[in-house]
Every structure is written in C-alpha cells, then in structure tokens.
UniProtKB/TrEMBL annotation:
This is IrrE N-terminal-like domain-containing protein. It holds the Pfam family Peptidase_M78. InterPro entries: IrrE_HExxH (IPR010359). Residues 93-160 form the IrrE N-terminal-like domain.
C-alpha cells in the first residue's frame, strides 16, 4: 500500500444469529438478522509491487474464479423469474459481463464467465432490476457512474452475506465508476442498503417449518 493512500468506503454486510424470547410462547428461538456496516477497502491500483519481477497481479485478480458453491446464480435466477423477468446466459461481446433490458424484462449473463463470476454478475443485474428498471433510460445514461456504483455495492454486500467474497472484482469496479469520490459513494448509501436488504431477504428467506404430525392413537 502506498503511503498516504486513502481507503474507499463501501458497505459490507453479514448475517448474525441471535437467541431471542418469543413473546407469544415464552420460548427462546434462534433469529437471523442481517447487519450492514461501512468498511474501508483499497483498489489494486493504490498499491506498489513488492517484487517487480513477479509481475503485476492486477491483471489476474479482477475476474472471480471458482465455483458458485452457495448456488447464488440459480437463486437469483429464480428470484427474478418470480418477478416476471427472463434470465439467460449468452455470449456478450466486449468487456460487459451482463446487462439488463427493462423493456423486454430480460437479464443476460455472459456465457463464458466462471460460476463464481456469473453469480456475482447475477447479483449486480438483480440490483439494477430493483433500483433502476423503472427509471428513464436517459437518467441511467446521465448518472451511469452512480448507477453502476449502486449495483456493484449491492452485489458485494449480498455476495458476502451468502459466503462469496467478491472483493477482488467489486472494489476495483466501484473505484472505477465512482472515481473514488467519497461524496458519490455516500450519495448511494440509502439506495444500496434498501436494495441489499430486499435482495438478501429474498435469497435467504428461511423455509417454513414443517408442521408437526400428531402420532396415531
């Protein structure tokens, strides 16, 4: 880390479980609660190489590799499908990993992405659906830096809650679109937390408990 560099403040989140007393039954029950908090992170571009002969790791640290162990992609796909959207994998030219088409109510994810990156991208596009799908396209174009900062911040938070660390990709993405501007990131806070709450709750909603069956007499 270069001396004098300032961290980028973005939101993080995690699930906590606590035991509370049910006022109706008087019994103790385990309750899940999502906690959101600001964290300081640093972009790869704010660092200097320790060993210059080893090469710059920035080129290989961006895209996520590995599996989608938690099944995030399928969960996001099911969530969006339930909202009336179509989610598909396809070859996408250029640098984009995915896109959202509000008119067609369709989300596309690049077919060549690793399972982990596809899961992260699905969360990013789901955030666009929640926050920006109803906006005029001109609004998105005019304030694209803010919109992309919001979507990736939501993806970073929710992925972390679900056990997928997207720091290697998300920090650089947010830094690029926000231009490391603290005011821009602060301005996104309310929307980011609102969408992160909605998406995390939808993807981590506990299954209803099975009804007890009375034994036959």
């Amino acid at each position: 880390m270069r001396k004098g560099e300032r961290g980028i403040r973005i939101f993080g989140g995690r699930d906590v479980r606590e035991t509370v007393e049910n006022p109706a039954t008087g019994k103790e029950e385990e309750q899940r609660r999502t906690v959101f908090f600001p964290v300081s992170v640093f972009d790869m571009g704010q660092t200097d190489l320790i060993d210059e002969e080893a090469g710059d790791p920035a080129d290989i640290a961006r895209a996520l590799t590995g599996e989608d162990v938690a099944g995030i992609y399928d969960a996001v796909s099911d969530y969006l499908t339930g909202k009336g959207w179509t989610v598909e994998r396809e070859a996408i030219a250029g640098a984009a990993h995915g896109y959202t088409d509000p008119e067609a109510r369709r989300v596309a994810i690049d077919a060549d992405l690793s399972p982990a990156q596809a899961a992260k991208t699905a969360l990013h596009e789901a955030a666009h659906v929640i926050l920006h799908a109803e906006e005029d396209h001109a609004e998105y174009v005019e304030h694209r830096g803010v919109k992309e900062t919001e979507a990736e911040s939501v993806a970073y938070i929710v992925a972390g809650i679900l056990g997928l660390d997207t720091t290697a990709y998300s920090v650089g993405y947010v830094a690029g679109w926000s231009k490391c501007d603290a005011d821009t990131i602060k301005a996104t806070a309310a929307n980011v937390l609102r969408a992160a709450h909605a998406l995390a709750d939808a993807l981590t909603e506990p299954e209803p408990a099975a009804e007890a069956v009375e034994p036959a007499a």
